[in-house]
Design goal:
The structure holds two protein chains of two kinds. In chain A, helix 7 packs across helix 8 (about 205-215) and helix 8 (about 205-215) packs parallel to helix 16. Chain A is globular. Chain A has two domains: about 10-145 and about 270-325, 3-Layer(aba) Sandwich (D-Maltodextrin-Binding Protein, domain 2), CATH 3.40.190.10; about 145-270 and about 330-360, Periplasmic binding protein-like II (D-Maltodextrin-Binding Protein, domain 2), CATH 3.40.190.10. The longest helix of chain A is centred in the last third of the chain and has 16 residues, at about 345-360. Chain A contains 16 helices and ten strands. By secondary structure, chain A is an alpha/beta fold. In chain A, strands 4, 5, 6, 7, 8, 9 and 10 form a seven-stranded mixed β-sheet that branches. In chain A, strands 2-1-3 form a three-stranded parallel β-sheet. Chain A is about 40% helix and about 15% strand. Chain B is mostly helical. Chain B has helices spanning about 5, 10-35, 55-60, 60-95, 100-110, 115-125, 130-150, 170-195, 200-210, 215-240, 245-250, 260-265, 270-300; strands at about 40, 45-50. The chains are: A alpha/beta, B mainly alpha. At the A-B interface, helix 4, strand 6 and helix 16 of A face helix 4, helix 6 and helix 12 of B. Chain B: Keywords: Cell membrane, Membrane, Transmembrane, Transmembrane helix, Transport. Chain B: It comes from Tistlia consotensis USBA 355.
């Protein structure tokens, strides 16, 4: 849930470049189909992606390179993506779940195994991304983009750099000007992290402590934002918000008074992945597409446009210091060391989190 | 009434599409969800029909009943506002000139042409701290301040030292306002249909015989049009009770309604059986309300349920 809620486009001026991406994507999917196909698979691909999460011309460039027509559909959050695949693949070839949901989907047997021989560009990935704890050997997933969760804030309204989660989780200093994220599992995980536990804790008493912390803090919180914390920040509705780094980066580009920090207690490290779901109608094209995205030039174009951290080392070499040295895009190694990825802990633990979140909201 | 017996083929030809629709797009999905409510989760994506009552028992835990109770309150408040505002509006339309009437009706129906989700987002732009409502309020405040300063009362700061925007968004009042905004036409239309049918001579008689306007309304008009009100109440209250994206978008930290809990069961919680049980709990409550309505209406007016 780190991209824009679908309504965002409606709320903001339509002249922004991100609207143009959408328009371009629509244009691409309506373009005429090439006639006389010789390949075994029809030259089509159904791509299920987050909103504003692909390069400006990536899909058109891919078509030019391979003749394959990409039709892109958008999902708003991982839960929606997962719910749509529960009862079978609705017809998609490539999907982009975040690591914890990718893990859940692997365990549920929803994802196809990747044929690494068809993805030679895997060599472009930085060593740290050649393997993944949630997907040993990268059998099912290729990394797309990665980042952190942290605090977005308005510099003129916040006292210095809010370097601790305390600012939003256990303090009335910014009473009525705080937005938390309306994602129970993640938000309770952050509270657990602040309390010194793992953000993946499966212990009932630690989840309970996180729940109580949030309930105690509720009077100071203005809203549990639907992943639109960046909009609330930009419009002056709140002065400090829990958000994903990419979202805050996008509004930082529009307002110099905004900034982003990963609190000292550590935070969540996320990674979005490219996967082929079982039952994909065009698995061969899907491999070609994933390989194309991992290409140095194509990967650089995407990263440059959406301003997220790419795991593609070859692509990074093509980009300038503005991108590569931006601390909001690439956290320092020392920051990364304090963070941990959110992992899938099984359905029973998931239920503990969900029930705790229901109680937090009802309190 | 015996005509269809003479032309059975025509009867079947006409009744087949709606029957098909009813069975495949209403009864079958509903039965599936009903089945889920008696199922248990198996693994990550599986469910098994075990005829368990655990989902219902869990749905009856105090926490969910509290949320349900709160949702009932919010839905009732929104319905009451729709009714109180809807009556005069329906009246005005029914008594407008024939030339004006279609235009007024159009104004009520027009919002339907825009998706409700989009209209809810539009409400955010109106209500937020730097939104249109507060802009207007700020202009008024500045004007008042200017007047006070001009007449020499500026030092007293009668309206505060400086402009403070109202907190219109992210609270329960915003949710109720959003629900009223979304479902208002559902109240006005049945009310209008009933008031339109009302024989004007009753009102003239009442007024001629010396009853005032209030008395006429409560003793004559209301008893003759309250079926419309009842229909309006039912079709506003039921969807209001299940609202989920309105509290999600306009609500504050304690605006969770039962619809939000149900939505989460089908999404992040991945617990369809429990979500189904909560949904059906609402459904049973709705059936109960409808049965009650039929009973009350039957007692009053010989069973005629005109909307």
């Amino acid at each position: 849930m780190r991209r824009h809620h679908p309504g965002r486009l409606l709320m903001e001026a339509l002249s922004r470049r991100r609207f143009m991406t959408g328009a371009a994507a629509v244009g691409v999917s309506f373009a005429a189909l090439p006639k006389g196909v010789l390949a075994a698979e029809e030259p089509k691909l159904n791509f299920y992606n987050w909103d504003t999460y692909i390069g400006e011309t990536t899909l058109a460039d891919f078509k030019e390179a391979t003749g394959i027509e990409v039709s892109m559909s958008l999902f708003a959050d991982n839960a929606e993506l997962f719910a749509r695949f529960k009862e079978g693949n609705p017809g998609f070839d490539v999907i982009v779940p975040t690591n914890d949901y990718a893990e859940r989907m692997i365990k549920a047997g929803i994802l196809e195994e990747l044929d690494h021989s068809k993805i030679p560009n895997m060599k472009n990935l930085a060593p740290a991304f050649q393997d993944a704890a949630f997907d040993p050997g990268r059998k099912h997933t290729m990394p797309y983009m990665w980042g952190t969760m942290g605090l977005g804030y308005r510099k003129s309204k916040v006292d210095g750099v809010p370097g601790s989660w305390k600012a939003v989780l256990e303090s009335d200093k910014y009473k009525g000007r705080i937005a938390l994220l309306s994602e129970g599992r993640t938000m309770l995980g952050m509270a657990a992290k602040y309390l010194g536990y793992s953000l993946n804790t499966g212990k009932a008493e630690e989840i309970k402590a996180a729940e109580e912390l949030l309930i105690k803090q509720k009077p100071n919180i203005k809203v549990f934002a639907q992943d639109n914390g960046q909009d609330l920040l930009l419009s002056g509705e709140v002065d400090i918000t829990v958000e994903w780094n990419g979202d805050i980066l996008q509004v930082m580009a529009e307002d110099d008074d905004l900034s982003y920090v990963v609190p000292q207690e550590g935070s969540l490290l996320w990674q979005d992945t490219l996967c082929i779901p079982k039952g994909a109608p065009h698995p061969d094209n899907a491999h070609k597409f994933i390989n194309y995205i991992l290409d140095a030039k194509a990967g650089a174009a995407i990263a440059d446009f959406i301003q997220y951290a790419t795991p593609n080392a070859a692509a990074r070499k093509l980009l300038g210091p503005d991108y590569n040295n931006n601390p909001a895009i690439f956290p320092t190694d020392e920051t990364i060391a304090r963070c941990e990825p959110q992992t899938y802990q099984g359905e029973a633990v998931q239920r503990l989190y969900e029930e705790a979140w229901t109680r937090v909201q009802a309190a | 009434m015996e005509n269809w017996r003479k032309h059975p083929l025509v009867f079947w030809a006409f009744s087949l599409p709606p029957s098909f629709w009813l069975v495949f797009f209403f009864l079958v999905p509903l039965t599936l969800v009903w089945g889920y409510s008696f199922s248990e989760k198996r693994g990550i994506i599986g469910t098994e029909l075990t005829f368990t009552l655990d989902n219902y028992l869990r749905a009856l835990e105090p926490i969910y009943l509290e949320i349900l109770w709160k949702s009932l309150g919010m839905a009732a408040a929104a319905t009451a506002i729709c009714l109180v505002v809807g009556y005069p509006v329906a009246f005005a339309i029914a008594f407008a000139s024939e030339r004006l009437k279609p235009w007024l009706l159009l104004l009520v129906i027009l919002p339907f042409w825009i998706n409700i989700l989009i209209r809810t987002y539009a409400l955010i732009a109106v209500f937020r701290t730097r939104g249109y409502a507060n802009f207007a309020y700020e202009d008024l405040w500045n004007a008042a301040n200017w007047v006070l300063n001009t007449v020499g009362l500026g030092q007293l700061q009668l309206i505060g030292e400086r402009f403070e925007p109202m907190a219109l968004l992210y609270n329960n009042a915003a949710v109720v306002a959003g629900i009223v905004y979304a479902f208002f036409p559902f109240m006005v239309l049945p009310l209008y249909a009933n008031i339109e049918k009302l024989d004007r001579s009753f009102m003239e008689a009442s007024l001629d015989l010396g009853a005032g306007h209030w008395r006429t309304f409560f003793s004559v008009v209301f008893p003759l049009t309250w079926h419309g009100a009842l229909s309006g109440i039912v079709i506003v209250f039921i969807p209001a009770l299940g609202a989920f994206f309105i509290p999600e978008l306009l609500g504050g930290t304690d605006s969770q309604m039962i619809g939000n809990v149900i939505e989460r069961q089908f999404k992040s919680a991945n617990d369809w059986p429990f979500g189904a049980a909560l949904s059906f709990l609402l459904m049973y409550a709705t059936f109960f309300a409808l049965a009650l309505r039929a009973l009350v209406a039957g007692r009053k007016g010989g069973g005629a349920l005109d909307a």
